[in-house]
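hey can u check if this looks right to u? its 186 residues, i copy pasted from the old doc so theres a chance i mangled smth
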Amino acid sequence: MPLKELHRQMHERMKKAIEAFEKELKTLRTGRASTALVENVVVSAYGAETPLKGLATLSTPDARTIQIQPWDRNLLGAIEKAILAANLGLTPNNDGRLIRINIPVLTEERRKELVRVAHKMAEDGRVAIRNVRRHANEEIRALEKRHEISEDDRDAATAEVQKYTDETIAEIDKRLAAKEKEIMEV
């Protein structure tokens, strides 16, 4: 039945929207050190642009420090340059063996700014989910126009699309609330 396939595709696309939102949230700096802050920084190495996570071991030895140990020590300078160029507001300390990044404590103003950024990311996620809903509803109406489904089937399918949309948006709101709490935590 075409409706089952339509619902499966809609679920998949909404799940991807949540995953994209979650990935974006991880890039937001909180008071704690997280390797997610730097793992996708692009480093010029061996004539190619490579994400940092592909060139070094990343760890957080304590709550305020990110440690980067490149597999090739010759890359220390390139990694340091890439972190500075990424404009993350982080200062790498190179000791010739590894790079340490101390995460400064966030000011109240900066925390509020990060919460605003998180809310913008959440709204972008909600918009993506609503676009998936709109597309699914258009497909359902098209199926009805082609007489492949009845009016009752259309109403039931539209209701299910709305129900799943509401659940997905609630999931984004839940993750936003958790991130907001994490950011505002001193």
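Strands lie at 42-45, 48-51, 56-62, 65-70, 92-94, 99-102.
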